[in-house]
From TrEMBL:
It comes from Enterococcus termitis. This is UPF0316 protein BCR25_12820. Its main location: membrane. Keywords: Cell membrane, Membrane, Transmembrane, Transmembrane helix. Residues 21-78 form the DUF5698 domain. It is a multi-pass membrane protein. InterPro entries: DUF2179 (IPR019264), DUF5698 (IPR044035), UPF0316 (IPR022930). PANTHER family: UPF0316 PROTEIN YEBE. Residues 113-165 form the DUF2179 domain. The chain crosses the membrane at residues 6-26, 33-54, 60-80. Belongs to the UPF0316 family.
């Protein structure tokens, strides 16, 4: 068993899959320049790693180490993407209407979030509905702020694919250029 070869196979496939995961996230978030550049490095590493394993199929441990590098690479790629927190999120917070006196929309605006406020009816009466746009990097602090002010809030988040209009448009356009 060639330990140096096993380590090389692991590192090569780990690097490939980490880049693959990051490139996929960049593509989904619309980073049109950097995603193709990352993919060039990714495919070069992929071909190198695959050829190393295919040329040594007589030793099954090579394939196992290749698969291990794949699994660890996905995990690390996801952690890197979480750390980078690219893009924006849209959060809907549904609050009991009795929380109007908390002035949560103004508090959120003071913290730099884009907030649209409306009212609706729920099973137990009137509700305040807040639509909040935020950079993903601020996601956790947004949830914390909402929960501090109204622990009964029902919160849903998603990633918008297209943003146009409103005071956030200039910030979003700067990122895309």
């Amino acid at each position: 068993m060639d330990v140096k070869m096993l380590v090389t196979i692991f590192v090569v496939n780990f690097s490939y899959i980490t880049l693959n995961t990051i490139r996929f996230m960049l593509t989904m978030k619309g980073y049109r320049l950097i995603a193709p550049l990352v993919s060039m490095a990714e495919i070069t590493i992929y071909v190198l790693g695959l050829s190393m394993v295919l040329n040594r199929l007589d030793e099954p441990i090579n394939l196992i180490v290749y698969a291990l590098g794949y699994a660890v690479g996905i995990s690390v790629g996801i952690k890197i993407e979480d750390y980078l927190a690219l893009g924006y999120i849209m959060v809907t917070a549904i609050l009991p209407s009795s929380t109007e006196q908390l002035n949560l929309p103004e508090i959120l605006r003071e913290h730099g979030y884009g907030v649209t406020q409306s009212f609706g009816s729920g099973r137990e009466g009137e509700r305040m509905i807040l639509e909040i746009l935020s950079p993903r990097k601020n996601e956790r602090s947004l949830y914390k702020l909402i929960n501090e002010k109204e622990p009964r809030a029902f919160i849903i988040s998603y990633e918008p694919k297209f943003i146009s209009g409103g005071f956030w448009t200039k910030k979003v356009r700067k990122r895309n250029n």
